[in-house]
Design a protein that fits this description.
The chain is of the alpha+beta class and 169 residues long. It is built from 4 helices and 5 strands. Helix 2 (39-43) links the parallel strand 1 (30-33) and strand 2. The model has no long low-confidence stretch (mean pLDDT 90).
Length: 169
């Protein structure tokens, strides 16, 4: 449920962002994938650029002085493709610059929403200190960009509130 909510939220941001301008019917620029290895195949299916790609999150438990928390590690790709320059290197650099600009716009949006609302949609207790990004290298068909990872966490009530009725004797 949490991952579905996160995907819907990121999709709505991809629709609102003027550079990405995702639209299910006319401008497919947002997708979710289960693992990074599927990225190239997903792009080859006609994705518009620039685009936002959500990779399924990974999770872990954290014990903060008896307060059990579920910590999610989220991964999002910002990708661009530029073919307007004379050389491949110039196109690559322009794609990286475009993807980085959009990534920073999203981080700014997250920061603003945290400051104003206390959370960022379904992403709860985001710590800006966990934001990390790296260049992707060539992903597919001259698409380049950045992979952004960040953590958010929730009370792990499904762990701490044991329900005996769900178990046989």
């Amino acid at each position: 449920m949490i991952l579905t909510d996160k995907a819907a939220y990121l999709k709505s941001l991809a629709e609102k962002n003027k550079a990405i301008a995702h639209n299910d019917a006319t401008h497919q620029a947002f997708i979710t994938i289960e693992e990074e290895e599927a990225l190239g195949a997903a792009i080859s299916k006609g994705l518009h650029f620039p685009c936002l790609v959500m990779v399924d999150a990974t999770g872990r438990l954290s014990d903060k002085g008896g307060r059990i928390r579920t910590v999610w590690q989220n991964s999002v790709y910002f990708l661009a493709r530029v073919n307007t320059h004379a050389t491949e290197l110039q196109n690559k650099q322009a794609a990286y610059e475009a993807a980085e600009t959009i990534m920073r716009e999203f981080i700014s949006f997250f920061y603003n929403e945290i400051e104003e609302e206390g959370s960022c949609g379904p992403f709860a207790d985001i710590d800006l200190n966990t934001f990390r990004w790296r260049k992707t290298g060539k992903v597919s068909d001259n698409a380049y960009g950045f992979a952004l990872t960040f953590s958010d966490e929730y009370k792990a009530t499904d762990i701490t509130n044991f329900d005996e009725s769900k178990w046989n004797d």
